[in-house]
Amino acid sequence: QVQLVESGGGLVQAGGSLRLSCAASGRAFSLYSALGWFRQAPGKEREFVAHISWGGGNTAYADSVKGRFTISRDNAKNTVYLQMNSLKPEDTAVYYCAAATNWNPRLLVTTTPYDYWGQGTQVTVSS
């Protein structure tokens, strides 16, 4: 059974930083063609944040986080990371990691191609 477990969320002041981690188990991590981060604020739909390819050479970011967030992965540790800098109150949300077995950059900015999801970790940014 595949499991994705996020950690690293918390409360931080605007301008601060957090590093989220997502550990995978139950399947060889390297078999995931893409890993992604999404977020969902209260009353809003889940939205794309970033994704990364198997080797880490291809990444994509939502415009709202570009230049502030960095996604990376360590296949040896079965972990994907999201480094979040210069946080803003509007970044407040539950953050989810997700894994996809097929690489399709056009669709990976949507929730559709992701086969597995974590339970989420809360990030709260105070003003």
Question: Can you tell me about this structure?
Answer:
It contains no helices and eleven strands. The protein is globular. It has strands at residues 3-7, 10-13, 18-25, 34-40, 47-53, 59-61, 69-74, 79-84, 93-100, 116-117, 121-126. The protein has 127 residues and is mainly β. The mean pLDDT is 94. Helices cover 0% and strands 49% of the residues.
How are the SSEs ordered, and which strands pair?
Layout: E1 3-7, E2 10-13, E3 18-25, E4 34-40, E5 47-53, E6 59-61, E7 69-74, E8 79-84, E9 93-100, E10 116-117, E11 121-126
Parallel strand pairs: 2-11
Antiparallel strand pairs: 1-3, 3-8, 4-5, 4-9, 5-6, 7-8, 9-10, 9-11
Question: What characteristics describe this protein?
Answer:
49% strand; mainly beta
